[in-house]
Amino acid sequence: MKFSILVLGAPFSNQAAYSAYRFVEAMMETEHTIHRVFFYQDGIHTSSALATPPQDEHDLYEAWQDLIASHKIECFSCIAAAARRGVIDAAEADRHGRPANNLAKGFELAGLGQLVEAMVVSDRLVTFGK
Amino acid sequence: MTNKEILIVCRSTPYGSSNAKEALDLVLAAATFDQSVTLLFSGDGCYQLIGKHQSERIHSKSMERMMSALPVYGVDNIYIDALSLKKRAINPELINASAQAIDTDTIKSLYESATTVLHF
Fold first, then answer.
1. pTM of the prediction?
2. Contacts with A113 from chain B: Cβ below 8 Å
3. Which pLDDT band holds residue B2 (cuts at 50, 70, 90)?
4. How much is the average pLDDT of A108-127?
5. Of A7, A84, A119, which to mutate for an interface test with B (greatest number of B Cβ within 10 Å)?
6. Do the chains contact at A41 and B18, CB–CB below 8 Å?
């Protein structure tokens, strides 16, 4: 079956992003496919390039980036939800005159249309909420 | 795109968190892409539908105004849980006219006929 994943909670503050990571990782061992992972609401913080966990804690940000890179998983953060919460790419930083940008490698910003498409095209949408 | 039945359940107060607004944004996005969307308000979500909000006094966009866009986008299936209203002693007459109060059995059938369910 074709799955899409929706993540609504931020790493550390909530377990959603970690549970989703473990789920996607487990899916890679099965015959099911991941169509897309979509980060909405606080979930967008998973796509931050600047989040810095302490050295002695699991770096979930790096874990997601490695997972995305090794399995070529399509990951989107909602552009509006991310902008509101302080995660922007270079284009958005330019457009809004912000001093820096911080979207992590492997993630793209997109509209909610990508989430709707994921719902429509996938057999299952699994939500990791707050 | 194959058509899905999307049920979005709003359980949060209108301004206490971003849930109400972000749920509505998703409803409008789904409607824009011609998906069949049903909106159910239950629990504290009922407060989103009460009366006239003077939300500018708390520097917020009005929930009411956002919701008035729903019929324009073709979202007509808007329901509110009658039991939640009762538990909160909310007079059903205060509820935004576009929402239809339904009982628990009807809510069960909404869940049964949906292909995708999201809670905010």
1. 0.96
2. 29, 32-33
3. low
4. 97
5. A119
6. yes
Domain that holds residue B16: 5-119
Residue A122 clears pLDDT 60, i.e. is over it: yes
Residue in chain A nearest B34 by alpha carbon: A116
Domain span at residue A35 reads 2-128
| Interatomic CA distance for residues B71 and B74, integer angstroms | 5
Across the interface, of A81, A121, A127, the residue whose CB is closest to B118 is A127
What's A26's domain CATH number?
3.40.1260.10
Judge if ipTM > 0.90.
yes
- Please report the DSSP string for A48-107 in residue order: BSS----TTS--HHHHHHHHHHHHT--EEEEHHHHHHHT---HHHHHHTT-S---BPTTE
The total of structural domains in chain A comes to: 1
- Mean pLDDT over A66-82 rounds to 98
Which structure tokens are listed for B36? 């069949």
Tell me whether residues A81 and B22 touch, CB distance under 8 A: yes
